[in-house]
């Protein structure tokens, strides 16, 4: 082989090694393999509707850690139950502040993973 081809092959090998090297800034380490986020923004609502048949907020919005790989309604309720120290049967996910309860993930509005 001539010298030019050897130089070109060496450059290709260096580029391959660069692509396979882990990111020194650590950006790739915290990613999950699933499509689930690391945390959720939730707002706790009153358990009974007021006179306008809306559930009023009890607390401001807050971040809740989401340790699960898959974004499912069951995992969502488990994360909320862990955060609020309640049984999962008491946690409910509403479509709006007027209800109704969500029965599938497709009913949750403003999701970022759609």
What does this structure look like?
- By secondary structure, this protein is an alpha+beta fold.
- It has a domain at 39-107.
- It has two helices and two strands, in the order H-E-E-H.
- The chain has helices at residues 3-20, 73-84; strands spanning 39-42, 62-65.
- A two-stranded antiparallel ribbon has the order 1-2.
- The radius of gyration is 24 Å and the shape is rod-shaped.
- It starts with a helix and ends in a 30-residue tail after the last helix.
- Residues 1-39 are annotated as: Disordered.
- Residues 17-32 have a biased composition (Basic residues).
- Residues 1-10 have a biased composition (Polar residues).
The CA-CA distance between the termini, in Å, is 52 Å
Largest sheet: 2 strands, antiparallel
Radius of gyration: 24 Å
Mean pLDDT: 80
Shape, principal axes of CA atoms: rod-shaped
Task: List the total number of helices.
Answer: 2
Order of adjacent strands in the largest pleated sheet = 1-2
Q: H/E series, N to C?
A: HEEH
Report strand %. Answer: 5-15%
**What are the segments in which pLDDT stays under 50 over at least 5 consecutive residues?**
none
What's the total number of strands?
2
- The SS-based structural class is alpha+beta
Helix content: 25-40%
